[in-house]
Amino acid sequence: MKQNLLAITLCVASVAAFGQGQALMGQVLDANGKPVIGATVVEKGTNNGTATNNDGRFTLSARTASPRLVVSSIGFAVQEVSGGSGLRVQLAESSTSLSDVQVVGSRSQNRSVTDSPSPVDIIDLREVTTKTGQLDVNQLLQFVAPSFNSNRQTGSDGADHVDPASLRGLGPDQTLVLVNGKRQHQSALVNLFGSRGRGNTGTDLNVLPAASIERIEILRDGAAAQYGSDAIAGVINIVLKTSVKELTASANYGAYDAKYRRDSEKFDGGNFNANVNYGVGLGEKGSFINGTLDFNQRQHTQRAAVPVGPDGLARREYGDPKVSNLAAYVNSKFALSDKAHVYVFGGANKRRGDAYAWTRFADDDRNVPAIYPNGFDPIITSDIVDVSVVAGVRTKLGEWDLDVSNNFGSNRFEYGVKNSLNATLGASSPTSFDAGGFQLQQDVVSLGLTRNYKTVLQGLNLAAGAEFRREWYSLFAGERNSWDTFGVNPDATPGSQGFPGYQPKDEIKAQRDNFGAYADAELSVTTPWLVAAALRYEHYTDFGSTLNYKVSTRYNLTEFLTLRGTYSTGFRAPSLAQINFNSTFTNFINGQAVEVLLARNNNPITQKLGIPALRQETSNSANVGLTSRIGSSLSLTVDGYYIKVKDRVVLTSPFKARNPDPNDEDNTILDPVIGAELEAAGVGQAQFFANAADTRSLGLDVVLNHTATVGTGRLTSSVAANFNHLKIDRVKTSGRLTGREDDFFGPREQAFVKASAPPSKINLTLDYQVGRFSTLLRLVRFDKVKLIGYDDKPMNYAARVTTDLTLSYALTEHLQLSVGSTNLFNRYPTLFDPQVTETGGAWDPVQMGSNGRFYFAKLQARF
Q: What residues does the TonB-dependent receptor-like beta-barrel domain cover (predicted)?
């Protein structure tokens, strides 16, 4: 901590010398004439900006001949004015108009985030991407939003290529993701390994380039009654850019300090990103087209050099995958009249990845020495194509605002394996394979109506709508060489080593339809008192109907203190991937390879055991909080929450064909329930998807923001924290497995569910800006995490604190250079024996990740 305090002192002292002379001066006020503290003032078309002080005043040195200033603050409408001396800028309260994307959590067109009855985080992506070293959306949110958790997985097959993310410690599939208020499709991948998201599907946030995003809204509250399935933990709404006549571009490069490599390299994991965004205005009615191109490429990290007893290294290659990502996204609006417009947005993302699989050493019976005399390290490749497009029209229908849209999305994931072999083919085996894959598609037709009655008490907002969604899921087989047994060496383990291909018997095509209808209302009973309610009915063709509701209220006790609370029921439909996925794969347990069958819901083995068809998860959520704002320099929100989920869909513990014989330690006996069936299928273990657990989460979110003038600059400070405790109330078995709770969903699998988030995550950020120079210092404390290793012994990952430091300087009115480091003091999770971890490395993917210190530089242009 002394090092951190010293870093703060040095940063503040170093920037004080960069004070600038006054050229542009003014004061920013609200509608009542009170100063707005911390409002952002930016010279248009440049990186030149500042913020107002405790009197709402600002000074800024102009860098253009005829400066235009853009003034903004949360809760107020953006205003553009001509630069000068003695300016007086009065900001109007922000309200959502027909042409704007609403603040998530409310369908009222007059609701600002500051008076929402539910907790909402607004994250300005321009501010975040300018001053931090993270480049993709998942990692940006991981270090900005304490209730959000995402780690890069390694040794986790598909999850190496699609980072699972969670909100408030629940599953990745229990958070709904919207883009411009429209449902984003999920990834086709179901996570099988790793410490987060086991047995879950989720939405791949990284398909959207950060350069295309204006802001991200995180609703930390159950919202299934408002938005439908998946919104048990909350909602993430990604709002795309609408700017015009402004070109932004950046080039970024960084690399990791290569500790724990097996060679002499000093740096690895090189990460390069380049992007460009530009918007074109069309006419005078607000029509525009805004487009983004983004390219990102990161190289492997290598963290295998951790000794493991007498056998040396568990794996020769272990670390982050190599990934190449290309994305193009567009956001547009075309005015039809003063009261109607068409909107179109969406894009495409192409990703290719190489991930390390487990080492096959030279004497391994899965190796063919004639091909690999020294053994080999298979590489699992991915080819992922993600496409989405939304088109709709917004118009007036009498006094109602009407929104009709169609939303199509597709995610296709194809596996490959290289630097591998099929041992049953002997020396004639190929070394690369097409291993098959899967695809998920959705099409959503939605209609929404909204009307505001200003004369009913202090205002009544009504909304109603309907939605029809169709989803398709397919799993397709790989080439025969990737899965079949051949006669050259028929006793060897068949299939491509590292990742055996999907077989024809795994193939499936499935679809389902969903119809939903909702109504909600918000009534301002008095000026300080708001009440709201929502009701939603949904019907799924594969499991039936559900009805959910939400009630909420907000009361302004004083001008500075507001109380708020919500209660809701919710649900999550099991994904088509969870219902239909089927595969035989290789897992390494205590360093030994084991063939595992993951059997779909209607597999003969699943049915013989009496495991019922998957049904929806249900939830009850409550949120009670307060918000306090003293002037506009200090704000505080505190929200406590309770979330109870029944019938959670989980991936069961592995059932073994053979178990140790209690009468003979050197022998094993068939499992009396499932052993014969598994041996007949040629596998040693089996797992299933089942509604196997009820959980309860109790937590607290705290956010404190402060803005102050320090010297001639502005210091913005924030503390944000999430405290979360998840308890598994009950494990439910069924059929022939009744009474075998520890076998069905045992302590090890339960530990992975509980480790979806650390018990607490605390973020302290100090952002100081003066003249052309700014510095950002961020400390994040990740609490301890408890897992259970393959040896059934506890694995206690101690708490860790990471420190990020960024220094930025405006080279010209259009160019800014930033340099810095994330995880400045090179902190790693607690080391463990790789033979007992889930990944085969010295760490499971917990807390802040396992790559260590990252150095970066970025050059940003704005014209």
A: 348-824
